[in-house]
Amino acid sequence: MAAAEPREAARTESGPDVMSFPGEKQNPKVQDEEHAITNEKAAIQKDASNIDLPTYDAREEDHFGEKEVITDAKGLITHVLHVDDNPSLSPWTFRALFLGSGLAIFAAVLQTIYYFKPQAIYVSVVFLTVIAYILGEILAYIPRLGPVGRFLNPFPFNSKEHAFIVVMASSGATTAVATEILAAQRLYYDMEPNTGAAIFLVISSQLLAYGIAGLLRSILVQPTKMLWPINLPVNSLMETLHRDRTETSRRVKVFLTIFLVMFCYEIIPEWIFPLLQGVSIFCLVHQNSLVFTNLFGGSQGNEGLGFLSVSFDWQYIAFLGSPLWVPLYTLTNSCIGYLLCIVLFMGLYYGNVWESQNFPFMSQLLYDGSSNSTNFVTYNLTQILTPEHTINSTAVEAAGVPHMTATYIAYLITTNMGITAALVHMLLWNYDDIKDGWSFLAPHNLKRVLDPSFWRFWEARESQEDYKRRVLADPDKDPHYKLMVQNGYREVQQWWYFGVLVVAFALGMGTLYGTNSTLPWWGFILANLFAAIFILFFGAQMGITGFQFNQQPILQMLAGYIHPGKPLANMYFTVFGFNGVQQGQWLLRDLKLAQLAHLSPRSTFCAQMLGTIIGAIFDYIMMQSIVDSQFEVLTSIEGSNVWSGQNVQQYNTLALAWSMASDMFSVGARYQKTKIRVFKYINLSIILMMQWYMGWLFVGVNSSILSYFAAGFFAQLYLRRYKPEWFVKWNYLTSAALDGGTQVLVFILSFAVFGGSGTAHSFPTWAGNNGGIGAGRNIDYCMFNPANA
């Protein structure tokens, strides 16, 4: 085994004690690395001297940089990352709180901007990591003169501060689904809920998920097999930035080189030469065929399937996360589903199933039956809504049942198939991983409720020594988590998360009536029960495979049958049901990130709470600004190559459609197969991912998919198997650099030239920039359908 590399220096100086959370280790003001390591060894020896406690030496788990083919989760987290820690480092500084708050605001604003883009893009945690490091190092230059100087800069910027800032910023970077319904109410219902009620709606929907996810962390975060592979580039980067420069200088240079190259390069496909977003040889050769557009086009939202197109824009290649970290199993299933999706969509459209050729090839809107292949007529929603925003069945009979595009219906079918199959797959193959999530229903645990001591939640259920004994003896626990427990980090008590859940539940119940939601109290409770169940199943799935399902369609289907004729109730049900699952998964991801960074659980709790609340507020503020300035674009079919309302459109469309489920989806209705096939295919759990990807291309920019798979298979199939030393050292660091350089530049362009600040500045028209939709063209030269304009 390669020798473990030196631990990070404590780098503290004399001066006032650093702010410390009650019950956590105080900073001992060690002077150098040698002193810190001596203290750590002494602590380990002291614990080991207790014969009742199992001994644990993290150095035996550290295999950083060893040359071998990695085959499991434990191999990854012990070869890509060092299993060592310096517990004397403290995250509790004004600097960390200040930068964490600022970046949470920044991330929330940026993520909301991305939400209204032609392709839904997530703010990369790598991007936040880079910005946090730069700002942290800048603030570390503040002179330590007097009490103020030492308060602002108590010691050099350390890895624990960095992790605290990143977790806080990442918690703010998750777009709240509640902003979707608030945007939909403005765009389609001419409603604007009270500002205070709207903000509390966003906050409560985020924190409900936080409470549920936190209660499940021992199942979904702490075990080794819950890898959460999306975190590996981030943790690899943080470790590289904070370890001794003599051992990481080459890694830092490689990261900075790739980062700067991408920063300079991305302006070309993003602004100067947008043709590079999706180069289709077929469309360049044959520019007068809508069949070619539908099959080979895909450089703009809702243009086509992008088959055999090649993208040179990393923003779109990594739109759901860098393909370099996606496990091979996930890549293989998704690639099969992608190819089947192309066959399915083309077959439905050109087979004219559901009269599909009378409507756009791809769209998320509802259409009137008077539409034809040259004139797409959107459905007039106002004619079927009562003043209370419920469905008027008599008006529906008079106006006719709305139509949906065949590709959208196919997406609903395959999503329902995939979700059902995923539940079955997790029960069959991963039951042991999730069964503890139901342990509270065991008879002996239910009896404990009758014991008065059960309700004294402020009392610890287990001593710190007993907890340490249990964790260190558990072979399934993550080595990094064992190291933290060995070093004395105190775990957050369950009642903290339960308290958050109770407060958020009360806030959510109150906002139902403050926003005229039409969702009854029992529907609110039911939505949160679905969220809790789905977080357990799909949180485990994402933690193991890196794959995330979109549960929104099936929850809107359930809401449609539970609350018929109430589209607003449907959307609010989905806010608390689907948002709970999505937000819960991101919070679990960040809990794992903090665990691999050895950030104490109590620090992580505070960072996530603060970041979530701050982010929710600024999600709402930015959504209001974008809807005000881009109202017409957001309600159009294709939008523009800069802004799109497709996410809000599909949310509203499904709410309305499922509110008329008896006329549209039930037995004998036009789209009955959308519901029936859920049960017909329930036994196809072995291809759960492939099923979802069979509807993957129903929306957005699809020209980047081929490049996505090419990059992913190169990393996970070739490098991981045949160049393991390169894979371990460079794959995740390269992924971080590509994401970081791209997103820094895209952020600048969003405000400088794309209209994020109010005014857009187009690059002059030339062969590589033909003007796009604004000029009546597709930027990849595929034939433009004027009916989509």
From TrEMBL:
Question: Is the Secreted keyword given for this protein?
Answer: no
Pfam families per the UniProt record, alphabetical: OPT
Q: Indicate how the chain sits in the lipid bilayer.
A: Multi-pass membrane protein
| Alphabetical keyword list | Membrane, Peptide transport, Protein transport, Transmembrane, Transmembrane helix, Transport
Q: Where is the composition biased (Basic and acidic residues)?
A: 1-11
What are the protein's GO molecular function terms? oligopeptide transmembrane transporter activity
GO terms under biological process: protein transport
Q: Where are the annotated segments for Disordered? A: 1-34
Q: What family does this belong to? A: Belongs to the oligopeptide OPT transporter family.
The name on file for this protein is OPT superfamily oligopeptide transporter
Specify the taxonomic lineage: Eukaryota, Fungi, Dikarya, Ascomycota, Pezizomycotina
